[in-house]
Write a structure and sequence with these properties.
The structure is a single chain. The chain is an alpha+beta fold and about 190 residues long. It is about 25% helix and about 30% strand. The protein contains four helices and 13 strands. It has a six-stranded mixed β-sheet, sandwiched between helices.
């Protein structure tokens, strides 16, 4: 995949909202970055994780909601930062305005694309931590690993493999068995 290219002028929220609906883009510190469509592997992982998260919340009658990309999250007005995490859990419904989440989701998962791993490992890690995201997972299909950052518990960069069972720290008893996802990817 091509490396994301920034636009050199500062983008306003109004300009971002005026983009065609099928445009995949994020804004970091006022700079817009266009994104390619995700791969089949990326979509498979996203769908499996979304199903696990949503099933858990429904079965436990939780107040939180699961969203998947493309769904905007405005992390900051000044400088403007709008992201589209692959998956997120939002527990504060007051952050939802019908169009986007205004403020930090409680939990975010990003699935690394081969063309821009630094985006998830560095840029988004920085922005998510500073915005108040409680937990951030980086799922890397190329390396076959997951990096868990549980900011609320001061646990950073805890590595797991695609054969691990990983606890979602913001939930009481939610565990994700990545070996099940690996089996689906191998089919």
């Amino acid at each position: 995949m091509p490396v994301l290219q920034p636009q050199l002028t500062h983008t306003t929220l109004e300009e971002y909202d005026a983009l065609p609906e099928d445009t995949r883009a994020e804004i970091f510190d006022g700079q817009i970055f266009y994104m390619p469509s995700p791969s089949q592997e990326h979509q498979t992982i996203s769908m499996e994780l979304s199903t696990i998260l949503n099933t858990y919340i429904k079965n436990n009658k939780g107040d939180c909601r699961v969203f998947h990309a493309p769904f905007d999250v405005k992390l900051s007005d000044s400088p403007l930062t709008v992201v589209q995490p692959d998956l997120m859990i939002i527990c504060d419904k007051n952050k939802l305005d019908g169009k986007r989440c205004n403020g930090a989701p409680d939990f975010i998962i990003e699935i690394v694309s081969p063309g821009n791993p630094a985006d998830d490992y560095i840029r988004k890690l920085y922005h998510y931590k500073n915005a108040g995201v409680r937990e951030y997972w980086i799922v890397d299909p190329q390396r076959k690993n997951i990096t868990v950052n549980y900011f609320a518990g001061n646990l950073l960069n805890v590595p797991y493999t695609f054969n691990s069972v990983i606890k979602v720290n913001i939930c009481n008893n939610l565990f994700v068995d990545f070996s099940d996802i690996t089996k689906i990817l191998e089919q």
